[in-house]
Design goal:
This protein has 165 residues and is an all-alpha fold. 72% of the residues lie in helices and 0% in strands. The protein contains seven helices and no strands. The chain is elongated. It starts with 19 loop residues before the first helix and ends in a 9-residue tail after the last helix.
């Protein structure tokens, strides 16, 4: 009888290796998004809001829209962290969806910053946006491929949550 030399598939292996980086990114994303919402929108005085709304009414609407997007981003990040640390099998698809969501937000932000470049006195705020956007989109693409193809991801997130009706 011939024996084959196959090893069993590992399941629920600890979170380590490259997988630590996107998880750290989630923690940093929560902190930075909270800071950006506070410093970029909530901290504006009444006079600043009124000045912006008179000169650039759509820009104020976009600020509020991006605040809502930021709150959604925080909620998704928290949900993803819960999925990650419970080794849930849905984690890779949630992470890929999250990265696609972020890519859409980054593209929208770049287009809006270019359209409203006159709002900013500092031209450096908009000059580097296309390069920054391209770098972010390449990073999103790399992480999406990692979550789709990585053996570590497939072996780490294996728990299926059973719902009882």
């Amino acid at each position: 009888m011939k024996q084959t030399n196959t090893s069993p598939i590992q399941t629920n292996i600890p979170i380590r290796g490259w997988l630590i980086l996107p998880i750290l990114g989630l923690f940093i994303s929560i902190i930075m998004t909270c800071y950006n919402i506070w410093s970029g929108i909530i901290e504006l005085s009444y006079e600043e809001w009124m000045g912006l709304s008179e000169s650039y009414p759509w820009f104020c609407a976009f600020l509020v829209l991006f605040m809502i997007f930021g709150i959604i981003q925080i909620a998704i990040s928290v949900r993803l962290l819960i999925l990650v640390f419970s080794y849930d099998i849905r984690t890779p698809m949630w992470f890929i969806s999250y990265l696609i969501y972020l890519a859409i937000i980054v593209i929208m932000e770049t287009v809006i910053l270019y359209h409203y470049a006159g709002v900013f006195n500092d031209a450096s705020m908009t000059l580097g946006e296309p390069n920054k956007t391209l770098r972010q989109l390449i990073g999103f693409f790399i992480w999406i491929l990692y979550f789709l193809r990585s053996t570590r991801v497939k072996n780490t997130f294996t728990k299926i949550k059973v719902s009882v009706h």
